Amino acid sequence: MPIEFRCTGCNRLLRTADDTAGKQAKCPECGAVQSVPEMAGAPPPPPPHSSPFAGEPQSQPEEPENPYRSPDHAGQLPPVPAAGLDAYALARVTAPAIALIVTGALGAGLKVLSLLVMAFQFNAFPIGNRDFPMMLHGGFGVAFDAIGLLLSLLVIYGALRMKNLENYGLALASAIVALVPCISPCCLLGLPFGIWAIVVLSDANVKMAFRS
Fold first, then answer.
1. Looking at the structure, do residues 11 and 110 belong to the same domain, yes or no?
2. In this structure, how many other beta carbons lie within 10 angstroms of the beta carbon of residue 192?
3. Per the count of CB atoms within 10 A, which of 2, 68, 97, 198 is most buried?
4. CA–CA distance from 196 to each of 57, 191, 202 (Å)?
């Protein structure tokens, strides 16, 4: 059984035959001469502040795995690289943005047509033949259509900003306006397209790609 001991000069682990006990040995690392110990056994532990170049590194005991620890990235999708973030976001927002633009354009066209019809009906009667209910109804109709036209333009403008990944708040507002039945430019299209746009805008990577 070989004798193992550490050099007193450099703390290197030395190994020699068991028949050399008591003899002088020279360390091949630092050249220090010392006696080979008589008793063979496990090498003594290195001093607490030994040189980092002395001896063999001591392996640290492995920490037992905790079965109750939550995994670091288990079940999570890998993040989208920064270089492809804009491309990913554009691919997601383009279709719902175009759908909102179409919804706003249809709503704006309907409001303009309604305003033209009311203007024609209002001008078709002489001033003396216009009773108060007719004038009141016409006034409310004009105000309602004017507000609807403004909201339609808001949806179009917000969808354009969404398509260009600009002004996240305005893009989200246009999607909300499109899906609310009472103020939507076109209820049949605004509800599904507005929900679609909100779902896309809720994507964290899409939100991160917006410039403001």
1. no
2. 14
3. 97
4. 60, 9, 10
Q: Select from 107, 110, 126 the least CA-distant residue to 189.
A: 107
What CA–CA distance (Å, rounded) separates 141 from 123?
15
pLDDT at 181: 75
Angle at 152 between CA 147 and CA 157, to 5 degrees: 125
Residue whose C-alpha is closest to residue 18's, from 35, 37, 3: 3
Identify the bridge partners of residue 4 per DSSP, sorted by sequence position: 15
Among 50-64, 91-105, 139-153, the minimum mean pLDDT is found in 50-64
**96 shares its domain with 193:** yes
- pLDDT tens string 116-162: 877 776 665 555 445 545 444 556 777 877 888 898 899 999 999 99
> Is the same domain home to 192 and 117?
yes
Range of the domain at 152: 82-127+143-209
Domain count, the chain: 2
What's the pTM? 0.53
Are 188 and 97 found together in one domain?
yes
Pairing outcome for strands 13-16 and 33-35 = unpaired
Residue type (1 letter), 47: P
Whole-angstrom Cα distance, residue 128 to residue 151?
35
Which stretch of 14-28, 35-49, 148-162, 188-202 has the lowest confidence by average pLDDT? 35-49
CB atoms < 10 A from the CB of 195, how many? 15
